[in-house]
Amino acid sequence: MCKTVNTRSTPNLRKRGGSPDSATSASADPKQKLTGAGVMPSFDHTDVSQRKFDDNPFMISDLLVFLFVGIPVMAHMGARLFASEEIGPVDMAVALIVSYVFVEPASGVLHVVLDNEKFNSWPLLGEVAISFQRHHDKPIEISWRPTLNFFLEPMVPWAIIGAQSLFIKNDFTVAVLFNLFFTTQLMMFAHRWSHMANSRKPPGVKTLQNLGIIMSDAHHHDHHRTYDCNFAICAGWSNPVMNWLTKNGPWDEDNQWWFTVLAGFYFLPLMLGAYRGELQMPTNPF
Ligand SMILES: [Zn+2]
Ligand SMILES: [Zn+2]
């Protein structure tokens, strides 16, 4: 259970087209203790009816973005990094860690924004938010979506960040953005696996969860009890801070100002580049 001290009134138990019981079998009382340590809300992995999944409504647009933005941008970055005299294997490993450290809190802020129904009427963002919020009603569905379908889902958000590499002079920043493709996928799949029965998890996933490299099922299922905590969905280590901020900071999870924080995460590469005077027009690395 989330243990963050809440100095606001009561936990925000939001309902997305149904009772919380439709998301978990935990009681509607968010404060009710579950029996025994580490007991999950019993998402029914065997209920065949829950295997029906909603197709990704953005499948075609995500595929087009992957083919015509994702692959070219990754190829551009890869060619640049391969030719770079500043970036070696150690730099790439450090860049991988930096991208992992970036994606964890970014996932929390993205989740806070997309869970917020106040954004549902916004152009473009609204459709994504509504689609995202459906996960609260059918949490198991995420574990049954076709893998390719799921893989394509973060293409647009990643492309917005990845394409900024074209304008960045600093090779290490480009290395971070290159690795961000993979850590973004890790974040997405960490969420999927947290809803997947242990018997269906790919080999090694349980080890990654046990090591804390990705979040445990229990950690994420706490979010599905009350929808007001544990928003980060990669490793979860940023959630104590995020939980404290949404409970005690200037903005709770329903505040639309979180969008500005999300924009800050999204355009951090360009902002850093501008601050350091390291922006450039795209070059041809081939
Ligand atoms: Zn949520
Ligand atoms: Zn979930």
UniProtKB/TrEMBL annotation:
<feature type="transmembrane region" description="Helical">
    <location>
        <begin position="94"/>
        <end position="114"/>
    </location>
</feature>
<dbReference type="Pfam" id="PF10520">
    <property type="entry name" value="Lipid_desat"/>
</dbReference>
<feature type="transmembrane region" description="Helical">
    <location>
        <begin position="63"/>
        <end position="82"/>
    </location>
</feature>
<feature type="compositionally biased region" description="Low complexity">
    <location>
        <begin position="19"/>
        <end position="29"/>
    </location>
</feature>
<feature type="transmembrane region" description="Helical">
    <location>
        <begin position="257"/>
        <end position="275"/>
    </location>
</feature>
<protein>
    <recommendedName>
        <fullName>Lipid desaturase domain-containing protein</fullName>
    </recommendedName>
</protein>
<feature type="transmembrane region" description="Helical">
    <location>
        <begin position="172"/>
        <end position="191"/>
    </location>
</feature>
<comment type="similarity">
    <text>Belongs to the fatty acid desaturase CarF family.</text>
</comment>
<dbReference type="InterPro" id="IPR052864">
    <property type="entry name" value="Chloroplast_FAD_CarF"/>
</dbReference>
<keyword id="KW-0472">Membrane</keyword>
<feature type="compositionally biased region" description="Polar residues">
    <location>
        <begin position="1"/>
        <end position="12"/>
    </location>
</feature>
<keyword id="KW-0812">Transmembrane</keyword>
<keyword id="KW-1133">Transmembrane helix</keyword>
<feature type="region of interest" description="Disordered">
    <location>
        <begin position="1"/>
        <end position="42"/>
    </location>
</feature>
<dbReference type="InterPro" id="IPR019547">
    <property type="entry name" value="Lipid_desat"/>
</dbReference>
<feature type="domain" description="Lipid desaturase">
    <location>
        <begin position="106"/>
        <end position="243"/>
    </location>
</feature>
